[in-house]
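Before a colleague's protein record goes any further, I have to sign it off. What it holds is a sequence and that sequence's fold in token form. My question to you is simply how this chain folds and whether the tokens agree. Thanks in advance; the entry in question is below:
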Amino acid sequence: MPGTRHVAVAPTRAQWLAAGARITPHRHDDHQIVYAGRGVLTIDTDAGSWVAPATRAIWIPAGTVHAHQAHGRSELHLVGLPAEENPLTLDRPTVLSVGPLLRELILAYTRHPDDDSPERERLRGVLLDQLRISPQQPLHLPNPTDARLAALCALLRADPADGRTLAALGREVGASDRTLTRLFRSELGMSFPQWRTQLRLHHALLLLADDTPVTTVARRCGWASASAFIDVFRRAFGHTPGTHLR
């Protein structure tokens, strides 16, 4: 990413970000866990984008160039870990499920970042234990390299409600549906329907962060009905969009 800053030590802290606020591209020598206690946060890298509501956190490995953006007023919690300490053994950004216990551990650990008491060290140990068993969530939108696939993805990012078939979209970008099906698998690691659902869920989270009504979110994201949207959202996140808004 152009204009990348180097921040040697990944900070551990809590801070508020205004709706729409951005943290410009940067990288750390340490690993970092990024968690939005309120609001929704997106992380962008050259490899793609990740989105994290309050039930998810994002693991960012040391050296990864990334940028943040807040959607809705967001309460950001950052946990830095030395590069040699990788409880998840992950070498790429990953979205993690955050249950009630892990949430409270992150909030407590980032509340007083300068505290070096034995109590806080024990808290850190439990936090790492919980991270090790945190389920990984497939909430990643990878970036394609093929120009035709990139053009198709750009069309749907601009309008997630676009319901055209892969063949119809292929005619616009100059590729057959067979070629595009192969490219989705080889470049993005998922089928076209899976990618489009991921895109729509990403967009839905951002709209919900701006307090958009559920029926409007369903329509703007391309679901045939609010009930169909609620069903897909519940299966992806474990709760309904209405609960998410609250």
In short: The chain is about 40% helix and 25% strand. The beta strands are 5-7, 13-17, 22-28, 31-45, 48-52, 56-60, 66-81, 94-97, 136-137, 140-142. The first helix runs from residue 100 to 111.
